[in-house]
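Each field is set out underneath.
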Amino acid sequence: MSKGFDHLKLSKADAEMLDQLVDVGFELAQLEYLSPEDTQRANSILKTLGLLDAYPVEDASDTLIDATLARIDQYEAKRSARMQIHTPELETTKRGFRIRMPDLISVAAMILITFSVFAMLTNSARNQSISNECASNMAMVGHGLFNYASDHNGNTPTEQATEVASLFGGIVPDRTDAEVLATEGYCEHHHLNCPGHGGQGRGFSYQTQPAAMWDEMHSRGNVIIIMSDQNPVLNKMLANQAFDPLTPSPTHGAFGQNHLRDDGSIASGAAPVFGGDLIWILDGKNRGIDIFLTH
């Protein structure tokens, strides 16, 4: 601030008195126990503020008022225009009327966009419904495996997976055999398939390991995947064709694949990875158990 205005600064005592006057609405009589010096100080402040009240002020210009009101009206008009929904302009003809071509194209584009959004939402809801039904089927298979193991001294049904022996260096591995569960009444046959699979062949893929590894898995007690949606790269792997090990199961669209764990829980994920392990392949990493799901 310029030094020329230093005389306008309040002293500490004046500032404190001004605060007290503000608190009582500038009613001096409301301030009690003031010393003669404080009373004089308060009267001086009130006198100074009275000069401000008496300061002459010109009336507002009619031109300024009119300009301000005109700006307000202009703003309200623009705001109302933005809120309006305009219908396409019509061109009259001898036989009636027709919509202009640009407007017709706009309407058609809006219809296509609406239909696309509706189709996307419908497809997403359908995939979610399929995923939920698939998870329900897996849960019934898991329940059947638990009951089977209870009736067979802790053992679960397996079969020899001769078709993937080449991937194990010629050793024929064992695979969970859920067909036994359906045959012996531990679950229904339709529980062995995902409704999004289409019913061709086996609907799920199952944990596949050499016999010695199965024994180690049971002794370790680690949570592993028992079954999942069908392995989408297995056929290409057996045919020595190029494939992407991160390919998700196509049965649920963008929802990825469901899988059943040996603790009975059902989980799903967009990527076919469990604990850093690619579940569709034998990735050869240095780990005790290499999850591999086949059908």
About this structure: Helices lie at 12-23, 36-53, 62-83, 101-151, 179-183, 211-220, 234-238.
